[in-house]
Amino acid sequence: MSKDEIKCSLKGEALLANPRLNKDTAFTEEERIKYELTSRLPPVVETLQEQIDRAYEQYKSFGDRVLEKNFYLSQLSIRNQTLFYALISQHLVEMIPIIYTPTEGDAIMQFSDVYRYPEGCFLDIDHKDPQYIKNQLSAFGTKDSIKYIILTDSEGILGIGDQGVGGVLISVAKGHLMTLCAGLDPNCFLPIVLDVGTDNQKHRSNPQYMGLKRDRVRGEEYDQYLSTVLRSIREVFPHAFIHFEDFGLKNAKRILDEYTKEFACFNDDIQGTGAVALAAIVAALQVTKSPLTEQRIMIFGAGTAGIGIANQITSALVGDGLSKQQAIDHIYLVDRYGLLLEKHADVATEDQKPFLKKNDSFQDINGDVDLETAISRVKPTILLGCSGQPGKFTERAMREMAKHVEQPIIFPISNPTKLMEAKPDQINEWTNGKALMATGSPLPPIKRNGKEYIISQCNNALLYPALGVGCVLSGCKFLTDTMMKAASDALATVPKNLFKSEEALLPDLNNAREISRHITLAVLKQARKENMSTTEFPTDDKELSEWILKHEWNPTYKKFV
Length: 561
Ligand SMILES: NC(=O)c1ccc[n+]([C@@H]2O[C@H](COP(=O)([O-])OP(=O)(O)OC[C@H]3O[C@@H](n4cnc5c(N)ncnc54)[C@H](O)[C@@H]3O)[C@@H](O)[C@H]2O)c1
Ligand SMILES: O=C(O)C[C@H](O)C(=O)O
Ligand SMILES: [Mg+2]
Description:
This is Malic enzyme. One of its GO terms (biological process) is malate metabolic process. (S)-malate binds at residues 415, 459. By secondary structure, the protein is an alpha/beta fold. The protein has 23 helices and 16 strands. The strands form four sheets. A seven-stranded mixed sheet has the order 9-8-7-10-11-12-15, sandwiched between helices. The longest helix has 21 residues, at 268-288. Bound molecules: nicotinamide-adenine-dinucleotide (NAD), (2S)-2-hydroxybutanedioic acid and magnesium ion.
């Protein structure tokens, strides 16, 4: 069967109800007869473009009601997969904020209230039997069909925390981006939510809540359950790469460390975010014309994402010739206790501990060192926000930042938009237009004193789809740090014609497919170099690029066979 063909054994109502096969008004006269659809459709036979045009008008009719736009698109995805992807592909930058951060965050919070139909795979801790789990998984595909799984336990959804069963929608949304941005065949993807209870009292007290109404399970029982699920996945879908998304602070890194050498797996919030943030920093340093080894980097919110970024920068500095300790000396963590010093050893997480700074320079201060004081003492050149705490980049802190550096690099990357540590227009004003900025969710440029300032989007979506496709195409045994580094380096060296403007720090998502090809190529080559690949692909770069292109899934109606 060629790429333009698809097997169809359905007819009539069942065919129209199947999102993978449904062509709706684009079924030809012959197809309508052959598949018993004639009287089930209005007489007109339309092209995909005509369908897209109508769907776009319908979409636009929701105006500013973004959540309704989100529901409209999600409904379209379960009605007609081809039309869904084709429509969004034509309006990618306009629609990504609707199907992903920030709007998806609201859709997740209201999951149980606005629920209309199920999407994804729901597994819950009240059903732990391995055979039961395997049976459930088997309903979603065959041994060879599922190649990429996004798994969340919903404890740390974006910056909005524990969302219980509704977190399934982050797995679904991240999957949609895999297809849109990197051409993953949506039919080889499975989004899963593990419902292990929720500590979110708002959901628990909502009579409509659709998940398990019990305390979030932790400890041994949780670990056992996760292990059973992962092992079941491996049995049922032995070729699936596992992507962990939005696990909570206490679990994310621990789980990644535990399974990274046993499963082909990846944590997007740790590794994806770290790699994208590093690429954005590298780009900003090209503007300030200053090497990474001369930076003082402050990370505000040293949780899953913050530590991922800290570790990625550490590796990059080691790559630049520093010892691990020298590299760590460049990185300052600020968390809920302020600047993390050795005196915080009792409360710091294991992952924060290597970064604790000596108390000496702060002996004159009683209590914790707040952000502003930390900035005034450390004089960071780079400040990243991944705390999910809005308003924490105060005017005074930002003015302090600008005092010591000609062009401070300030990235409030918390999602969704309302949780950013400061709004870019504020940062721009308080730093007198000096700051180089990037945010986690997309924002329009700022106009101030007749000048336009581009706000780049520093979101792991720039990387994980391409990385994931690279892992799928290489059938990688494991994802190594060096493969991650190859992906990050590739993002940092994307050709300039894929940027919106010269000032942009990161490439334009409008060019997502091209950006992704560049990254996927690097991942494939690195996988082969390290003997992590289990598939054959061309050795010549040009041929490999064509091979990647050939493997991309595109939203076109396929011929039924
Ligand atoms: N742009 C991206 O690609 C991207 C990727 C991952 C996460 N994020 C965002 O980063 C944020 C954090 O996500 P996470 O998964 O790391 O969450 P997390 O819960 O693992 O980490 C948050 C950290 O912030 C700290 N914190 C809380 N209150 C604080 C305060 N008042 N002052 C300083 N630190 C404080 C917490 O102690 C914790 O260490 C979220 O908003 C998330 O959307 C963005
Ligand atoms: O989902 C996103 O938009 C990025 C990131 O994974 C996050 O958790 O915020
Ligand atoms: Mg995430």
